[in-house]
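Usage

Read records sequentially. Each one opens with the input sequence:
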Amino acid sequence: MHWLLLGLAILAEVVATSALKLTDGFTRAGPSLAVIAGYALAFYFLALALRGMTVGVAYAIWAGLGMALIALIGWAVLGERLDGPGMAGIGLIIGGVLLLSLVSRSATL
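and closes with the structure output:
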C-alpha cells in the first residue's frame, strides 16, 4: 500500500509542478490553485507512504521520478530542449530509482 501512496504523491507533485509554469508567476488563479492543491496532496500522500517506508529512500524515489517526469513533460508538452546529456541524466535517475525500489531492501521499515 505504501508504494501506491508514494505513486500518488509523485503524480500529484508532477501535476503541481507542470501547472506551475501556467501560473505566470501566480497571476492566474486556476493554475495557481492547481499548484497549491497538487503540492498539498503530494505531501499528504508522501506522509502516508512514510508509515511503511524509510524517509531517505521514499524521498529519493519521489524526487527522482518527479524530476525525470517533469523534464520529459517539459520536452514533450512544453517544447523545452532536452539534449543528449540531459537524456542520459534522466536515464541515470530512472536507473537509480529502479535500483532503490526493485533491488534495495532499505526502502521499507
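Summary fields computed downstream for this record:
- The helical segments are 2-22, 29-49, 55-76, 84-103.
- Residues 2-103 form one domain.
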